[in-house]
Amino acid sequence: MANPPLHPMLQQAVQLSVAGRNAEAVLIVTQMAAQNQPQAMAMLAEMKWRGGLVPQDPTAARELYRRAAALGHKQSAEITTNLMANGVAGPRDWQGALARLRDEARNNPKRKLALGVLDKMTLTENGDPARLPPAETLAERPDVRRIERLFTAGECDYLRQLAEPECMPSVVNDAMGRQVRDPIRTSDGATIHWMIEDPAVHALNRRLAAASGTAFEQGEATLILRYRGGQEYKPHFDFVRSEQNQRFRTALVYLNHDYKGGETVFPEIGLSVKGRKGDALIFTSALPDRSVDPLSKHAGMPVSGGVKYLCTKWIREKRWIA
After folding, report:
1. How many CA within 13 A on the CB side of residue 106?
2. Contact of 204 with 212, CB cutoff 8 Å
3. 142 and 109 in one domain?
4. Domain identity same for 156 and 294
5. Helices (H) and strands (E) in the chain, counts
6. In a shared domain, residues 89 and 176
7. 15 and 147 co-located in one domain
8. What pLDDT sits at residue 3?
9. How far is CA 101 from the centre of its chain?
10. Could you report the average pLDDT of every consecutive run of 10 residues in the chain (322 residues)?
């Protein structure tokens, strides 16, 4: 059952915000949330999660979602389950999240689908993979490894199904701060951020972490990229220069292989890879001294036929999630 229509006072708050009267809008939402109105609590939770209208506070947002869920707010219930599963902005309770997911799956086809994917996995009690396929070394420097069939065909299809409705053109900010089409990455993409990272996706992310020799908490949010005919990712580095927490490793999973072109190429070392559905490619982009490895430059070649789908996980050297 869907959430009921938005409360009239909250509709007014939205209209005030659109008109630029944000302080008045926030006041209405805050007052109604204090009165335990579940829609207002969910709206205030989203504000606190994202920041901007109010100071960003993911921990407080998660608690608001939990309270709204307890009052019957459906979307907040799903978000609460997801955050319990991944442990973002609060304690992780994998078994508790699984119990909630099974309950949600009784009346929600999407949650039932997630549960079906999850039930086919072989996991530890903590949600980690019980075993991993062997890795094949393709290059010593940069360290490039391939793991065949890290994801099953069904898991790849599930990620594609989640991402497809959310795919948007890849954009960057220009010199004026305006969003423009990314001239380097011409694909479309969808981010499976932590609020919508259901337990099945979370288990896949933990598998990627284990395969890359890192912890889940080091990974950025999962990005699903879609490359149609002619789209590409021109030569670039994944390395992000940061004194605090550099991006040093990348894990890719090919979600299909029924397309032409689209190879992953490392031009400095003459390596070209075209994975099959479910194969993972894991490589490093930083040297031991924490500087960028010039040999890690790589590209996604133009797709010449069909559509390519790729799961991308950028990994930091230290904990990244809230």
Report:
1. 6
2. no
3. no
4. yes
5. 9, 16
6. no
7. no
8. 62
9. 19
10. 82 96 97 98 97 96 98 97 98 98 97 98 98 98 98 98 94 76 90 96 98 97 97 94 88 98 98 98 95 97 98 96 82
> Is residue 214, in this structure, part of any structural domain at all?
yes
Burial zone of 203 (CB within 10 Å; 0-12 exposed, 13-18 middle, 19+ buried): buried
For residues 239 and 242, give the distance between their C-alpha atoms in angstroms, rounded to a whole number: 9
Q: How many angstroms from the chain centroid is the CA of residue 151?
A: 16
List C-alpha distances in Å: 25 to 17, 220, 279: 6, 32, 48
Verify that 183 and 215 share a domain, yes or no. Answer: yes
Angle between helices 58-70 and 74-86 in degrees, nearest 10: 130
User: Does 120 reside within a domain?
Assistant: no
Q: Is residue 127 part of a domain?
A: no
Asked whether the beta carbons of 310 and 255 are under 8 A apart, the reply is yes
pLDDT at position 180, please? Answer: 82
Q: How far is CA 214 from the centre of its chain?
A: 16
Q: What is the DSSP string of 235-291?
A: EE---B--SS--EEEEEEEE----SEE--EEETTTTEEE-PPTT-EEEEE-B-TTSS
153 and 86 part of one domain: no
What is d(CA 241, CA 234) in angstroms, rounded to the nearest whole number? 19
130 in a structural domain: no
For residue 67, the enclosing domain spans 8-113
CA distances from 35 to 22, 29, 61, 68, 255 (A): 20, 10, 16, 11, 46
State residue 173 phi and psi, 5-degree precision.
-90, 130
| Residue 2 pLDDT | 58
The type of residue at 1 is: M
Domain tally for the chain?
Answer: 2
**Listed residue (78, 33, 208, 70) closest to 135, CA to CA:** 208
Measured between alpha carbons, how far is 213 from 211 in angstroms, rounded to an integer?
A: 6
